[in-house]
């Protein structure tokens, strides 16, 4: 069963998220000497920056052991305002203190922006090169996926009732009709997310309340976020603020 932990604000979510990430980092590095992370866009990079850039935090993160992938990405140039890579760079990477060892960040290959299927296939190949060659595995195992939740219950670029929810083969899929703009994107698929060691969602604000009710009270409706909860159970933790989770009928831990 997924865990919900509720805090008063993003500022109080940040230290808790930092401790959680630090634990995941330790487990991963003890296990295989690196920390393989997949990140979403939306509001997540800003909360992540709050969690990781704080003076004490930033020095405990072993940045050069981090390998950062995108849980989903929009088919735009890396310096475009819609780029998730661009967002992460602006919110977090560019703000790392001078001299910080750099993480290995794996963006999309922008040579293929005109062909979203090829863009997805290329990212799939990047994952194969990275994971399969090292670990001889059938699916990439992210040590941690840090995800957001859309107001319709989507996560990554997996939208409610979309055919992509039934994808079983590809690790990375193309989507050309995303209801959230821009329409052309690539996304990790459910089987890859379900293979992750840990998943953390971050959802804040009263605007998320209605959808969190549906996700947690009616998992049988199969919203993408519910599917992740069901697939990973106790490996999923939701970091939320009180307004997002108010009135949701599901056990949770509340903190300041
Ligand atoms: O690139 C994207 O569009 C995101 O990866 C998307 O899945 C996002 O995480 C959710 O829409 C939540 O976004 P917010 O956190 O901004 O609500």
TrEMBL record:
Origin species: Orbilia brochopaga
Single annotated GO MF: 6-phosphogluconolactonase activity
Protein origin, superkingdom: Eukaryota
Domain (Glucosamine/galactosamine-6-phosphate isomerase) ranges: 9-238
Gene3D superfamilies per record: 3.40.50.1360
Residue spans crossing the bilayer: none
Catalytic activity: 6-phospho-D-glucono-1,5-lactone + H2O = 6-phospho-D-gluconate + H(+)
Classification via InterPro entries: 6-phosphogluconolactonase_DevB (IPR005900), 6PGL (IPR039104), Glc/Gal-6P_isomerase (IPR006148), NagB/RpiA_transferase-like (IPR037171)
UniProt similarity note: Belongs to the glucosamine/galactosamine-6-phosphate isomerase family. 6-phosphogluconolactonase subfamily.
Protein name in the entry: 6-phosphogluconolactonase
CDD domains given in the database record: 6PGL
Keywords: Hydrolase
Pathway: Carbohydrate degradation; pentose phosphate pathway; D-ribulose 5-phosphate from D-glucose 6-phosphate (oxidative stage): step 2/3
């Amino acid at each position: 069963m997924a865990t919900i932990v509720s805090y008063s604000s993003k500022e109080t979510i940040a230290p808790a998220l930092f401790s959680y990430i630090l634990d995941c980092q330790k487990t991963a590095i003890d296990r295989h000497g690196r920390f393989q992370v997949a990140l979403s866009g939306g509001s997540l990079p800003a909360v992540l920056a709050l969690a990781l850039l704080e003076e004490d935090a930033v020095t405990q993160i072993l940045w050069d052991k981090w390998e950062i992938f995108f849980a989903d990405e929009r088919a735009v140039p890396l310096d475009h305002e819609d780029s998730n890579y661009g967002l992460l760079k602006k919110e977090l990477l560019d703000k790392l203190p001078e001299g910080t060892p750099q993480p290995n960040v794996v963006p999309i290959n922008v040579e293929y922006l005109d062909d979203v299927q090829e863009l997805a296939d290329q990212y799939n190949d990047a994952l194969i090169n990275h994971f399969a060659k090292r670990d001889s595995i059938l699916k990439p195992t992210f040590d941690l996926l840090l995800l957001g939740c859309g107001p319709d219950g989507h996560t990554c670029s997996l939208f409610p009732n979309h055919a992509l929810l039934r994808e079983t083969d590809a690790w990375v899929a193309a989507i050309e009709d995303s209801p959230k703009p821009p329409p052309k994107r690539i996304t990790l698929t459910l089987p890859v997310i379900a293979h992750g060691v840990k998943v953390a969602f971050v959802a804040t604000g009263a605007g998320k309340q209605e959808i969190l009710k549906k996700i947690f009270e009616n998992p049988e409706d199969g919203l993408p976020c519910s599917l992740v909860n069901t697939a990973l159970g106790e490996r999923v933790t939701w970091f939320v603020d009180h307004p997002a989770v108010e009135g949701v009928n599901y056990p949770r831990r509340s903190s300041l």
